[in-house]
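QA checklist item 7 of 12: single-chain prediction sanity check.
[x] sequence parsed
[x] length recorded as 196
[x] structure emitted
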Amino acid sequence: MRDRAALGRPHTSTDQAWIERLFSHIKADWPHLDAIDDPAVLRAELALVRVEYNTVRLHAGIGYVTPDDEHDDGAVRERIITTVFDNVPLASGGDRPKLERAVGDALDQAGELGIFTTILLLVAASGVMGALRHSINEAWDIEQRPPLLQRKALDFALVLGGTSILALSVSLTVTHRLADIVDDEAGGFAVTWTAN
């Protein structure tokens, strides 16, 4: 009898699902790898497979694009802007290019989040909130409009309140996930016994 360390956590059946899925794709898409006996040749072939897997092969789980395309910063920014503005009703069609430009400029300088960029982002977000507020008022047939300063103050309050709630939600989620990870790791790894 000998002992063998199990790589999965106790009572967690999904630990190795991701690697099993990867192996399944590699075996199906590149069956010639099974026949290679020489480790150096296999390493060279796997390097080619890695490049093809990340730059050529389309992945269903990320919307039938390659991982390189999915994680390209410029493409991600463009998809975010397009998706947001396709789903947010604006007061008039002329608002969209200005807001897209403002949000795009803010995202282009995301690493340099300074005062000007923060103000620009808040103005763009308040414009989106104003469009949402206007759409809700139209849907509920509310025709009475408060003064401009009061509307803008409400829009800024909604943006700051929504941001605060989102930040609180993310921090609680991260704390909960970290607690789960610490609890899982406290048990250590399982040792299974197998007979020869």
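[x] summary fact logged: The two ends are 6 Å apart (CA to CA).
[ ] second reviewer sign-off
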